[in-house]
Structure formats: C-alpha cells, structure tokens
Design goal:
By secondary structure, the protein is an alpha/beta fold. It has one domain. It is 24% helix and 25% strand. The strands form two sheets. Strands 1, 2, 3, 4, 5, 6, 7 and 8 form an eight-stranded mixed β-sheet that branches. Strand 3 and strand 4 form a beta hairpin. The protein is globular. The two termini are 24 Å apart.
C-alpha cells in the first residue's frame, strides 16, 4: 500500500477525510501543520512487506534491508537491548533502488509520565547503529516512532516533531520523531474499545513473565513464547556470512 494510507490505517486520526473523525484524537493546530508536512514527504512512497524476519543486530544495515525488501520482509531485531525493535522499509516510486529507500524505525519503551523520551530518539541514530554507511546521504527525512503502551489510557497522547540531528562525527540527518503513549482507540487503528482492555492485560502479563503471547494456529487461545526463544525463529540465528552470500552484487 502507499505509505500515506499505511499511516492512516495505523493512526486513523491522521486521516482528515474520515466520516467518523470525531471519535478520534484531535491534534493541536501546530501538530496538524506538522502532520500535513509529514504526509507531503510520504507522497509517492510505498510499502511492500507482508511479514517480519527476526535478525541479528548486525543485519540491520541498509544493504541487507534492501535484500529483505525484495522478499517482502520487514525486520525485527532479536537483541532485547537494541535501541530499535523493528525496521519498516519504504520505497519511492515503487522501485527498491539506491537512494529510493527510506526507513521507519520502531521502539517500544516503558514510561512513567507519558512524556516523549528524547534520549530514546537520540539512541535511534542510523549512523551510530550502522544502519546507514558513514558516507550515506539521505535525501528524505527518517521516521522514528516510539511507543509507550503502558501509559494509562486517560494519559494517552501523540506527538510529532521534525528535527535536524547532528551526531558526534558531524553527520546530519532530518527526522520525523513520533511519540505514541497509551493503548487508546482514539490513537491507534489496531485498538478498539472492545479489545483495549484485553490488549493491556496481555501487555502487563508479558512484562511480568518476560514473554510474548502469540495466537495458537490450532485454537483461539494465545500461547506464551519465552523471549529467549526468538533466536530460533526464521532468520534469527543466521551468521553474517549467510546474509552476505545472498545480498552480494544485488545493488
């Protein structure tokens, strides 16, 4: 789907044309201006992934992300201490060519007050994380999204900011930093009033037991999967030589 539609599905309040807009979050005027600019940046970008592959942190590099995009995959990092949890690729003009790809970096955190954590965004530096090569010069803003799902529903909020980032080596990139706090149906398209409480209970249970719950394909129940077992999932334990072997000379 095109990237604008993706964000409208993910965050329905962004879609000004919705007939049921009144039930969703109403951003302040300054945020509306930024959201208009944000959508303008996404015009002609498309998203083609239909599944996630769990990868070692060293595979979170643009050359590998290009190759994974060719098989319709987005990536999730297997290391729990990584500054990002997942990367969603986008391509401009429908072709995954050099200079045509852009990325959405995702991170889920805990928050005591629901306020944006600037240090979390700073840690999501694509140069420091080797996602971008040192000489890579992006031509479009990076998108970084941080979720704080544990914030009480009454404190749910959304915040978007456009920033010019400069790292210790004077490499500069522009980013749209999006902060989503709470599991509120007014903010998230994947949450509705009937499932919000169940999703919050799953969140609290997963945190308490250090597990993640996945639907059992043979029943309607959700089964716990220990976090440590994710290295056994597809792509999670591959050596770097494996990735290099099937991405060499692709670009």
């Amino acid at each position: 789907m095109d990237a604008v539609k993706f964000f409208h599905v993910m965050f329905p309040f962004m879609d000004a044309s919705r007939s049921d807009r009144a039930i969703y979050y109403e951003p302040p005027e300054d945020q509306k201006v930024l959201l208009t600019d944000f959508e303008r940046e996404l015009i002609d970008y498309h998203m083609y992934f239909n599944h996630f592959v769990v990868v070692p942190r060293g595979v979170l590099q643009l050359k590998y992300l290009h190759a994974l995009l060719a098989r319709g995959a987005a990536v999730r990092c297997e290391q729990l201490d990584c500054p990002i949890d997942a990367v969603l690729p986008m391509v401009e003009g429908g072709r995954a060519e050099k200079g045509k790809a852009n990325l959405i970096l995702l991170k889920a955190v805990t928050s005591s007050d629901g306020r944006p954590a600037e240090e979390v965004f700073r840690a999501m530096d694509p140069y420091a994380l080797d996602i971008w090569a040192p000489d890579y010069a992006p031509n479009k803003p990076l998108i970084r999204i941080v979720f704080a799902f544990d914030v009480p529903r009454e404190d749910s909020c959304f915040r978007i900011a456009k920033k010019e980032n400069v790292d210790d080596q004077q490499r500069m990139f522009v980013s749209y930093d999006i902060w989503i706090a709470g599991l509120s149906p007014a903010l998230l398209g994947s949450v509705n009033p009937d499932t919000a409480q169940e999703m919050r209970e799953i969140l609290l249970l997963c945190r308490a037991q250090r597990t993640r719950l996945f639907p059992d394909p043979h029943s309607r129940d959700r089964v716990p999967v220990m976090l440590q077992s994710f290295s056994l999932r597809a792509g999670g334990g591959a050596r770097y030589q494996h990735w290099q072997g099937w991405t060499e000379d692709m670009l």
